[in-house]
Q: What sequence folds into this?
RNA sequence: GGCGAUGUAGCUCAGUUGGUUAGAGCAUGCGGCUCAUAUCCGCAGAGUCCGGGGUUCAAGUCCCUGCAUCGCUACCA
């Protein structure tokens, strides 16, 4: 396998939305890019690695206000959390971009102007049914008897104007491009997903928000009254960081662009972004590399379950390289995987301590014992005669590794190395150097064996570099390896030739690379194992709520509990609401509905009320019978899925799961609540 | 409800275009070695490849259907 010299590679993570601190998902995306980028450097490619933070939008303003901060202060703070994490994880990014940087803003303006001038952005009013009470548009089907379900008033047809990007006209071109370039989006499952999206007619993309509704954003260069909405802001980071349009970096590197994203944001990256580039007359990126989600302890990461895993914590407990190894070994790039503390401990003990660490230790120990730590010379006649060369096995390992890495199959790359380690262990067992050493006449044979083993360690220590840079460097140092230009890694081409370690090289005494870990070494308070039971107690064997994507994203994310406070009301307003204690007498699921339960509730009145509640995902009907809840008793009745609802049940919402209110003692039905 | 994905050994998962007795790691049991981080090597047990039907000389693999789980989406008073 040859490595093209002079190839340029530009690797990117999505820019992470600063509405929450970094978690396992962010860490994986960034680390998979780091592994790819380090490998790319080993292939001799000029490699540029970009990550950053996405900082505009309404949600940010709300979150900042809640903390009594300006958006700028708030975003500075969260962005810093990301910037601090990456060095801890040994991430080798060359740049960190923030969408609030002036340089970025200028490029966004430039790009918008360019596409606007090309006539690909148009201004359009669209008509919708708007309820002024709710300050929102409704779909026809959402109305109850043609009226606003909230206010019972007739909504108005109004027009709002916005700017649109003429994306639809690129649909056929995009389909064609994806079909012509089978690995444009990879792995294949995500390519298929995008193609199936594209079977439906594509709509034009709304790219603006009036300033009356959104201020924390980039003003449209052709209309002061609007800011650009998410896409042209966030996606543009990939070229603004390179100094588009005239930047020297852009000209040199953009042709090698490799985007890495989690599966939740393939639409903007696989559809919007290529069409935007096309409209602006910019070449497309090389590949969109899509990976899956990390579950934790068997469930989706979510705040309500309490299993959101902090990469810094895991690293503090187990170390950077074990963490990196685990993520890369355990997840098949593209598919989902599961994170548990038991699994990481098992990987550390069996793969790192028993296999890699131990083989390193036993080879070096023998070399010190029999040759005083100096690399002995191979005697070729004996090597050939006894079939002692490990060259072929090493070649196969290197080849398998390269093939896998070129394909983002990081786990396979590691498997390839570990198969080689297994061969080394077997080789040691078969050749039994400790037996050979007893016979002075077999000194040459012993030397040949140990040379082959040390040489194999050279290969292993080099190949693990992208995934475990720290350990790789440590091993190489102990082995006495150095590289041109003070590089801390050898290139692939430098790894391949056999018989490289110079005879007589002095090696250090072996050090324990990975101590074995006690399986109960659980320091992290977010230990998934512990949280599991809590989870069960809360949700009572119900299927978990889907957490809103807990993974990196360009930005339309909704924070779980950052809802801004509503405007102040007078006490009189509050007293208009009649809250009562209701006893649930019966509950059944409404057919064709996922979330709705039809409840029969006793409010102490002559007849029982029928109330429809959207809590089916959090509660089974059985567990509700007899439960006492707070009911809004004077709410105007409404119709849902064909069922009348005469009231509303109060429940807390943490963003994922709903929790009914309750009382510390049984009460008569209908008791007032104030 | 619509769209999509997944279901293979006790556990976590590989299984390319259908082709011998279905694989790996971990776990379990037995045996061996002592250079090594009580590590390593060998052997063994174990699977209705979710159920049912179909195509085929041949199905884990293709088609239909059912079930289960998960994701997106709609209803969320």
A:
């Amino acid at each position: 396998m040859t490595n093209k010299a002079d190839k340029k590679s530009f690797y990117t993570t999505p820019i992470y939305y600063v509405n929450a601190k970094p978690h396992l998902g962010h860490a994986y995306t960034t680390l998979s890019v780091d592994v790819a980028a380090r490998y790319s450097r080993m292939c001799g490619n000029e490699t540029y690695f970009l990550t950053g933070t996405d900082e505009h939008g309404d949600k940010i303003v709300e979150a900042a206000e809640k903390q009594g901060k300006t958006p700028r202060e708030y975003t500075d703070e969260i962005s810093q959390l990301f910037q601090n994490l990456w060095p801890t994880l040994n991430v080798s990014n060359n740049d960190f971009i923030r969408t609030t940087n002036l340089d970025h803003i200028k490029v966004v303006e430039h790009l918008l102007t360019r596409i606007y001038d090309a006539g690909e952005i148009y201004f359009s009013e669209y008509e919708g049914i708007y309820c002024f009470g709710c300050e929102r548009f409704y779909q026809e089907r959402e109305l109850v008897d043609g009226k606003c379900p909230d206010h019972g008033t007739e909504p108005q047809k109004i027009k709002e104007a916005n700017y649109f990007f003429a994306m639809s006209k690129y649909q056929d071109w995009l389909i064609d491009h994806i079909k012509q370039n089978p690995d444009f989006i990879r792995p294949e499952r995500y390519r298929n997903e995008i193609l199936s999206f594209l079977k439906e007619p594509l709509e034009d993309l709304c790219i603006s928000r009036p300033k009356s509704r959104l201020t924390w954003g980039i003003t449209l260069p052709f209309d002061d009254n609007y800011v650009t909405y998410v896409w042209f802001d966030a996606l543009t980071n990939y070229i603004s960081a390179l100094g588009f349009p005239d930047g020297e970096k852009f000209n040199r590197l953009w042709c090698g662009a490799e985007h890495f994203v989690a599966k939740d944001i393939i639409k903007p990256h696989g559809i919007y972004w290529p069409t935007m580039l096309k409209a602006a007359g910019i070449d497309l990126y090389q590949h969109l590399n899509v990976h899956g989600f990390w579950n934790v302890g068997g469930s989706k990461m979510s705040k309500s379950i309490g299993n959101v895993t902090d990469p810094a914590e895991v690293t503090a407990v187990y170390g950077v390289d074990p963490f990196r190894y685990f993520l890369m070994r355990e997840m098949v790039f593209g598919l989902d995987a599961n994170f548990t503390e038991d699994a990481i401990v098992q990987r550390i003990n069996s793969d790192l301590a028993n296999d890699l660490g131990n083989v390193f230790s036993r080879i070096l120990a023998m070399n010190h014992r029999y040759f005083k730590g100096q690399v002995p010379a191979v005697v070729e006649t004996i090597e050939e005669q006894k079939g002692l060369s490990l060259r072929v096995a090493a070649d196969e390992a290197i080849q398998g590794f390269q093939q896998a890495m070129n394909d983002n199959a990081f786990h396979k790359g590691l498997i390839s190395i570990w198969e080689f380690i297994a061969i080394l262990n077997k080789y040691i067992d078969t050749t039994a150097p400790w037996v050979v050493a007893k016979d002075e006449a077999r000194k040459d044979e012993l030397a040949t064996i140990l040379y082959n083993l040390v040489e194999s360690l050279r290969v292993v220590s080099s190949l693990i570099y992208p995934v475990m840079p720290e350990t790789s460097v440590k091993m190489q140092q102990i082995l006495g390896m150095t590289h041109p230009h003070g590089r801390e890694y050898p290139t692939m081409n430098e790894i391949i030739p056999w018989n490289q370690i110079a005879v007589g090289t002095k090696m250090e005494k072996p050090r324990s690379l990975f101590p074995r870990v006690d399986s109960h070494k659980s320091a992290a308070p977010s230990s998934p194992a512990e949280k599991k039971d809590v989870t069960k107690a809360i949700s009572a064997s119900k299927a978990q709520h889907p957490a809103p994507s807990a993974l990196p994203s360009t930005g339309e994310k909704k924070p779980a509990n950052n809802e801004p406070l509503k405007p102040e009301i007078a006490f009189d307003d509050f007293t208009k609401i009649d809250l009562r204690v209701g006893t649930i007498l019966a509950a059944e699921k409404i057919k064709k509905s996922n979330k709705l339960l039809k409840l029969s509730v006793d409010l102490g009145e002559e007849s029982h009320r029928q109330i429809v509640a959207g809590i089916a995902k959090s509660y089974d009907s059985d567990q509700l019978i007899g439960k006492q809840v707070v009911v809004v008793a004077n709410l105007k009745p409404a119709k849902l899925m064909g069922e009348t609802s005469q009231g509303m049940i109060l429940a807390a919402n943490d963003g994922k799961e709903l929790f009914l209110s309750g009382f510390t003692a049984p009460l008569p039905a209908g008791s007032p609540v104030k």
User: Anything to note?
Assistant: Confidence is low (pLDDT under 50) at residues 1-5, 521-567 of chain A. Residues 187 and 334 of chain A are 6 Å apart (CA to CA).
